Amino acid sequence: MITLAILAVIVRVTTPILLSGIGTLYNDRAGVTNITVEGSMLLGAFASVACSYFTHNWVLSVLVAVLCGILVSLLFSLLTTVLNGVEIIVGLAMNVFLDGLTVFLLRQVFKQSGSLYSPEIVGIPTFSFEGLNNIPVLNECLNGQTWIVYFAFLSVVLSQIVLFHTPFGMKVRACGENPNAAATVGINVPRIRLICNIIAGSMCGLAGAQLSLGFLSLFSEGMTVGKGYIALAAVIFSKGKPARVLSLSLFFGLAEALSNTLQLTAIPPELALMLPYVTVILLTLLEFKKKPSAHHPAN
User: How confident is the model over 20-54, as pLDDT tens digits?
Assistant: First the structure.
């Protein structure tokens, strides 16, 4: 089932999950429960396609997607930090609102429903390295990918360095582990959390641009199909480690790639589409199984 040809697909479908997961990891380490990942990705996907349609400039389109992700995070910070909204409720409400907003804008601006595809939309260009042509596995995985794919995997290394080997990373972890103690030693907890929200929003917006302009150069309603929530699951199971976010994102990417492949077989497509979400449920069950029972504590 897993061939060299499917490796490139795994890398492509992993990228949005990995990008949004690494971005959300900053929120997780800072003690912020920001679940607007799905909505930020979806708005970023729509905004990048809309900008590409009108400007024919993929660079500007990516920047607009990142800006939209940042604006979503700033709104989340305003509603939760300034107006004291409950993070989970605000996050869920914003996801629903942003989903409806993209549908509304698609119909009002482009007079389309369902999806938007046009030759006017300029996708993100792909790159290939001649030095990898004679290396079978790396050639299939890395050649013919957008720069966002390379950045997604590089962000794992960068985040490992930032979170665990810099003063800023120490402040982020302090805000998440004991915000009162962090404030006592002079760390501006709200400011650190705001910065982490901005990092998360920008990476979710970038993930949305990759999803729409890096794959098929189109936008369809609800095209994230739960990738934001899958990224959240990767962060939860990662225990705060960027490398674990990478491994879990690749696992979910493999499940999605297999799901796409199974749709070409005799298996009902509805069952094949369930595969990525079934993996999340299985991991959740395994996580609960690892925890010792309250009635039978581990020795």
Answer: 999 999 999 999 999 999 999 999 999 999 999 99
Q: How confident is the model at residue 2 (pLDDT cuts 50, 70, 90)?
A: low
> For residue 107, how many C-alpha atoms fall within 13 Å in the half-sphere facing its CB?
8
Ordered by start, the domain boundaries in the chain are 4-290
Structure tokens at 170: 């120490």
Query: Which of helix, strand or coil describes residue 232?
Result: helix
Closest listed residue to residue 42, CA positions, set 183, 229, 272, 249? 229
Nearest to 6 by CA among 276, 260, 273: 260
Q: Is the pTM of this model over 0.85?
A: yes
Cα 191 to Cα 15, 183, 195: the distances in Å are 29, 11, 6
pLDDT at 295: 44
Identify the CA nearest to 216 among candidates 117, 103, 102, 69: 117
Residue type, 215: F
In this prediction, residue 289 has a pLDDT band, given cuts at 50, 70 and 90, of: low
Contact by Cβ (8 Å): 137, 79: no
Distance (Å, whole) CA 78 – CA 256: 35
Cβ–Cβ < 8 Å for 145, 8: yes
**Contact call for residues 25 and 238 (beta carbons, < 8 A):** yes
CA distance 215 to 218: 8
Torsion of Cα atoms, 261 then 266 then 271 then 276, to 10°: -10
The third-level CATH classification (topology) of the domain covering 4-290 is ABC transporter involved in vitamin B12 uptake, BtuC (1.10.3470)
